[in-house]
Automatic annotation (TrEMBL):
InterPro entries: Isoprenoid_synthase_dom_sf, Polyprenyl_synt, Polyprenyl_synt_CS. It comes from Ottowia cancrivicina. This is Octaprenyl diphosphate synthase. Signal peptide: none annotated. CDD domains: Trans_IPPS_HT (cd00685). GO terms for molecular function: all-trans-octaprenyl-diphosphate synthase activity; metal ion binding. Keywords: Magnesium, Metal-binding, Transferase. PROSITE patterns: POLYPRENYL_SYNTHASE_1 (PS00723), POLYPRENYL_SYNTHASE_2 (PS00444).
């Protein structure tokens, strides 16, 4: 996401909180095994947007929670997210993330998998510190759903018949679930009641879904240098993302066959032709329209929260998401 003036304003609102979160992360990465800290710090310090901690902090601010647990749980969701990245890059055989070599490329697959396991287990140690069974339930359920989403995605590799509904189910499990949990935790910490919890759940789920759709759009409409990853990686992995699904639906039979074959074979050999097909079919605009509907759902949900700078920033974050180019 480009660091626009609006995004800078949102980050400035929680800047002091994020510094506390970073201090908590640094403290809880300590381990008697040097490689654990080395690998974990490598990926955590690689320029991520900290969107999930930001979301938790914004929800806490919107609902008036100022307790210390917001720092602890913001670090927890970042650890869970980082663990998924470590495992994802091994499964996907990725070599580039956020503009530099992936951890598995630098340290090898075994170290990446095992440090991912460490981060998961450390996150569970930290969530126990909250002494709140609902917090633990939300995070345990989210972690389980994310793992199911990973398996669902694996099952659908090279599946060129995947439709929009099945695609959305995968990304809501794999990506949006942690967004949802992050916002939900803010409401639970604030003890804000069922209505506010439901609004935060809807906000996080919709925002996370829109975020992943835009991420998939940028695989065919972005700049690899700005994005910090190789364009076409999803196609090489045989993933039928929403732009490809829509392109196969809207293109002529021979063009749809080119895309279908690339998904089934996991090949980016015809990448230039496929990018042309995706763009000319209107698939990018079609996918952005689906993302826009999700962002609008997030905005409506955030509008139900008390009106203040934090809830306004949640609305602005969903608005700015649609302008994302990296």
């Amino acid at each position: 996401m480009p660091v626009s003036s609006s995004i800078q304003k949102i980050l400035a609102l929680v800047a002091d909180d994020l510094r506390q979160v970073d201090a908590t992360i640094a403290q809880r990465l300590d381990s008697g095994v040097p490689l654990v800290g080395e690998v974990a710090r490598y990926i955590i310090s690689s320029g991520g947007k900290r969107l999930r901690p930001v979301l938790l902090l914004l929800a806490c601010g919107a609902l008036g929670y100022k307790g210390e647990q917001r720092f602890n749980l913001a670090a927890v969701v970042e650890f869970i997210h980082t663990a998924t990245l470590l495992h994802d890059d091994v499964v996907d055989e990725s070599t580039l993330r956020r503009g530099r070599s992936t951890a598995n490329e630098v340290f090898g697959n075994p170290a990446s998998v095992l440090v991912g396991d460490f981060l998961y287990s450390r996150a569970f140690q930290m969530m126990v510190d909250s002494n709140n069974m609902r917090v633990m339930q939300i995070l345990a359920d989210a972690t389980n759903v994310i793992a199911e989403g990973e398996v669902l995605q694996l099952m659908n590799i090279h599946n060129a018949t995947l439709d929009e509904a099945a695609y959305l189910h995968v990304i809501r499990s794999k990506t949006a679930k942690l967004f949802e949990a992050s916002a939900h935790l803010g409401a639970v910490l604030a003890d804000s009641g069922a209505a506010m919890e439901a609004a935060c759940v809807e906000y996080g789920r919709s925002l996370g879904t829109a975020f992943q759709i835009i991420d998939d759009v940028l695989d065919y409409d972005g700049d690899s240098h700005e994005m910090g990853k190789n364009l076409g990686d999803d196609l090489r992995e045989g993933k039928a993302t929403l732009p490809l699904i829509i392109a196969m639906q809207r293109s002529r039979a021979e063009e749809a066959a080119v895309v279908r074959r690339a998904v089934e074979e996991g090949s980016a050999q015809d990448m230039e032709a496929i990018i042309s097909i995706v763009r000319q079919s209107g698939a990018l605009q079609g996918a952005r329209e689906v993302a826009a509907r999700q962002a609008e759902s997030a905005i409506r949900a955030a509008a139900l929260l008390p009106a203040n700078p934090h809830s306004q920033s949640m609305i602005e974050l969903a608005t700015q998401l649609l302008q994302r180019r990296t």
